[in-house]
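B., you asked whether I could sanity-check this one before it goes into the benchmark set. Here's the sequence:
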Amino acid sequence: MNKLMSKLPLLAFVLAAFAAVAFTSPKASTGEYGLAGGVWYDVTDIDPDEDTYVCNQDETEDCLFDQPFGMGQPISTEQEKVFVVQNASNLRIAQ
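And here's what the prediction gave me:
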């Protein structure tokens, strides 16, 4: 019985480690996509500037989405802005 009692802290640690891994959901990476002239651009990890794209104020449109081709939701910080391509050669077309 004493031998079992001495192993309880180790058993508790193993059970806690298992629970932490088993019940933690992986975070899905969120992309950033913009639509201009019928073309979807993947602007994930691209900073907006005068050589890539900008988000101009427009209350009727949204600038960035979390998925391309009309399947995504607007990214909340970029609502009521319009996606404007400044230099298409510096942007990737969404796949």
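One thing to flag: The mean pLDDT is 89. Otherwise nothing jumped out at me.
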